[in-house]
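sry for the spam today, last one i promise. struct tokens for design, 206 residues
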């Protein structure tokens, strides 16, 4: 690590010194991001809001507070529209509050309504990244993806496989009871068939 002291400037004092304050620059602290690395997209807004409606993969929020940026110009009828991947909206229930980091969506995707984009889950690297693609490894800075929707306290949203069933108790009961009922019905049918065949055989013997 090398330290570079910039040349001093300023008028010399009576003893031949200068009254300028020298500063040190740490060259290794200057980060150069390789051109092949992808930098995170700048956020348009970070806000806390409650879900008022879910329409396909669009979620309408009542904005309660703004943490970064402003969305006043994006509101329509008092609500803010945010687009999500279609598989993410099932984790966002009406009435729940979330902390949303969003970027601007392409214009015109919902007519004249301004739309932001966010997501619940971070997609994994496909095909093992550049190691499998046989591309030369490049050391990229680790960025935490800011385009995320979290719980209002900053915790990640539970995206486990059983989350949709646990949120829908009737669906969970149906998923458990229907196979059980079908199995019991099949057993009853087999037992009744065996009873009838046995009775018929005994009748023929008499």
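last one done:
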């Amino acid at each position: 690590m090398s330290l570079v002291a910039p040349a001093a400037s300023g008028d010399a004092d009576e003893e031949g010194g200068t009254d300028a304050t020298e500063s040190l620059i740490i060259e290794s602290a200057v980060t150069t991001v390789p051109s092949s690395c992808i930098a995170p997209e700048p956020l348009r807004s970070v806000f806390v809001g409650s879900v008022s409606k879910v329409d396909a993969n669009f979620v309408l929020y009542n904005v309660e507070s703004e943490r970064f940026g402003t969305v006043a110009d994006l509101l329509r009828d008092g609500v803010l529209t945010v687009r999500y991947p279609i598989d993410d909206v099932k984790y966002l229930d009406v009435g729940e509050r979330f902390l949303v980091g969003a970027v601007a969506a392409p214009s015109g995707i919902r007519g004249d309504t301004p739309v932001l984009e966010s997501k619940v889950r971070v997609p994994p690297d496909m095909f093992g990244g550049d190691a499998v693609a046989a591309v030369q490894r490049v050391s990229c800075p680790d960025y935490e993806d800011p385009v995320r929707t979290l719980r209002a306290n900053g915790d990640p949203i539970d995206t486990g496989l059983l989350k949709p069933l646990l949120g829908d108790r009737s669906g969970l009961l149906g998923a458990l009871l229907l196979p059980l009922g079908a199995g019991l019905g099949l057993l009853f049918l087999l037992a009744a068939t065996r009873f009838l065949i046995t009775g018929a055989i005994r009748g023929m013997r008499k």
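The beta strands are 3-4, 25-26, 45-55, 58-68, 80-83, 97-104, 109-112, 115-117, 149-151. ok im logging off now
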